[in-house]
Amino acid sequence: MQKITNLSRARKQKARDEKRAQSEIATKSAGTSKAAKLLEATKNERARQMLDQHFLGSEFEDD
Q1: Measured between alpha carbons, how far is 16 from 12 in angstroms, rounded to an integer?
Q2: In whole angstroms, what is the distance from residue 46 CA to residue 53 CA?
Q3: HSE on the CB side for 2, CA within 13 Å?
Q4: CA distance 43 to 49
Q5: Would you list the domain boundaries of the chain?
Q6: What is the pTM of this model?
């Protein structure tokens, strides 16, 4: 004997699954999250500051 399926519930579940799949595609195409971008920017700024601390000066400066 086959299992009885509520067609309305199955239709709604199918629509939710399709929407979830589309949102995953959109998320991947959008790139990184705002938090990841902020983290990367913070790391880059910190690395730049560390590099600038070791800067002795340009050989082209007029002293």
Answers
A1: 6
A2: 11
A3: 3
A4: 10
A5: 7-53
A6: 0.42
Distance of CA 42 to the CA centre of its chain: 15
Tokens representing 32 are 């990184």
On the CB side of 25, CA atoms within 13 Å amount to 6
Distance between CA atoms of residues 6 and 11, nearest Å: 9
Residues 3-49 have pLDDT tens digits of 888 899 999 999 999 999 999 888 877 777 788 889 989 999 999 99
Tokens found for residue 13: 């579940």
**Alpha helix (H) residue ranges in the chain:** 7-30, 34-53
